[in-house]
Amino acid sequence: MKKRAAQKKGKVSTGNEFLDRLTNGGFEKNSSNLVVGNSGSGKTIFGVQFLIEGLKKNEACMYLTFEEKKENFYDNMLDLGWNLAELEKKGKFHFLQYSPKKVKTMLEEGGGIIETIIVREKITRLVIDSITSFVVLFDREIRKREAVLSLFNILRNWNCTTLLIYEGNPLQKKSIDNQILEFECDSLIYLYYLREKDTRNRFLEVIKMRGSEHEKKIYPFTIDQGITLINKPYIGKLKE
After folding, report:
1. Is pLDDT larger for residue 151 or for residue 102?
2. CATH of the domain at 79
3. Which residue has better confidence, 107 or 201?
């Protein structure tokens, strides 16, 4: 299938004004970015907020999921003030539920149905939630590495800015698939959801931002209508 012509690089807003400042403008255009966090850390909300920002700019956006049912997902996001069903009717938001095995087939085909939709609809922002379900299909380290490399090569040909979500605790020892993903991605953000005394709190840390300087401090955040970073760096050592 004919690829869209490569576009000039630039910056793409993360959907969070303060995070954009921390990263000198957000994600690099047409890059592949990874968000890692444990359950309840706000990974999906982070991803949807990134897509909402694109929709505000009249960009075509896609949410590709291996686990979420559309009705449940839309209801959960409506609680945050995001009416994705209405945005879908307007033709800019695209929801695609796909099995990890189909993504495996996509790699073998070099793009497949997903690429057809991305090219036809001129998708500029893509969230894959979560990539964890895909990499566990491969039981050997060499196969995991080959699959991740193939996936990133395909993503780079699509001329859209991609956010991949990975389920995992950033404070625990990294698995092989996590290590490979973190090495290949253009940017890496950790989301923490940790207990402090009798309360759980959320924190964000930018680990890398290829081609750009970024803030090295850890910031707490809250979830209301999306993720809101608190402009006060966390002082101390994060622990489970």
Report:
1. 151
2. 3.40.50.300
3. 201
Between CA 50 and CA 219 the distance in angstroms is: 18
| Residue 124, number of CB atoms within 10 A of its CB | 21
At 22-68, the pLDDT tens digits run: 999 999 999 999 999 999 999 999 999 999 999 999 999 999 998 88
Residue 71, phi then psi, degrees to nearest 5: -60, -45
- Whole-model pTM: value is 0.91
Task: Give dist(CA 31, CA 29) in Å, integer.
Answer: 5
Tally of domains in the chain: 1
Q: Say if residue 19's pLDDT is above 90.
A: yes
Ordered DSSP codes for 155-197: HHHTTSEEEEEEES-TTSPPPHHHHHHHHHSSEEEEEEEEEET
pLDDT > 60? residue 1: no
Q: Which helix (H) or strand (E) holds 121?
A: helix 112-121
Task: Return the axis-axis angle of helices 112-121 and 100-109, rounded to nearest 10°.
Answer: 80
Is the pLDDT assigned to residue 111 strictly greater than 80? Answer: no
CB 23 within 8 A of CB 214: yes
Q: How far apart are CA 98 and CA 112, in angstroms?
A: 12
* Residues spanned by the domain of 168: 38-229
Please state whether beta strands 32-37 and 161-167 pair in parallel, antiparallel, or not at all (unpaired).
Answer: parallel
Residue 179 included in any domain: yes
134 inside domain: yes
